[in-house]
Amino acid sequence: MKKLLIFAIALSSCSGCDNSSTTGSKDKKDSLICIIPPPPKQQVRQLNYILHKTFPHDTTSFTEGLLVHEGKLLESTGAPDYMPQTRSVFGIIDTLTGKINVKAELDKKKYFGEGLSLFNNKIYYLTWQNQVGFMYDAKTFNPVGQFSFKNKEGWGLTNDGTNFIMSDGTSDLSYFEPVNFNFLKTLPVNTIDHDLPDQLNELEYIDGFIYANVWKTNKIVKIDPANGYILGILDLTQLASASKKKYPNSQEMNGIAYDPVSKRMFVTGKMWPEMYVITIEDYKN
Whole-model pTM? Predict the structure, then answer.
């Protein structure tokens, strides 16, 4: 009994130890197994936003990607089989009407359009289940090639100025180099601790962080690319409810674009009647 008591005291005194107190001893009799508790969960901020402006969005646009290029807002869309009015296109949005000035269209019998990204004066348009994407000249919008990947699906696409970052419907983000779209690494994102589904969707890289829509929720998460931690959650339920009220056939929230000049974010959803211009607290001057 006395031996058990001494061992318990030894373990309790070990609670604050580090590796140097155990690994430095060569004598196994003198070494002590130290049970170190796991690190605390990452602090997650609830991000607030300010709504600055709304403008029309085409309710036939099944939004998959958004980006700002040279002051213009571009959108890519998909085309579900059960929605004959939809098309897989990308182009420039007319902010007066919400319609897309189409620059390229995919054969909807073969491809389902997904995320959109701009890199090195080329626009990259992802597809869903074909494991390919298409490249276009950012000035002429002429097709200039295509790229492939091994992920089963492609969802969202962005880049950090060096490499592409892609979501595929899981909680993992995949990195690809830009020349041949060769796979580089996987960044696991911890959605479990935050009671979020695994399906990360549309992506946008903003000031060193990755922002991602979470499919079938009204939330955007702010991700640290260094470790995959979720640092903040932006809940846009109020905007989603306003869209649903105005157009009952509105689908899930999807679409993030950032204008570095105005420091404002554009957000919308699939077949939403409006596009919203917001700033979140990170961007306050």
Answer: 0.84
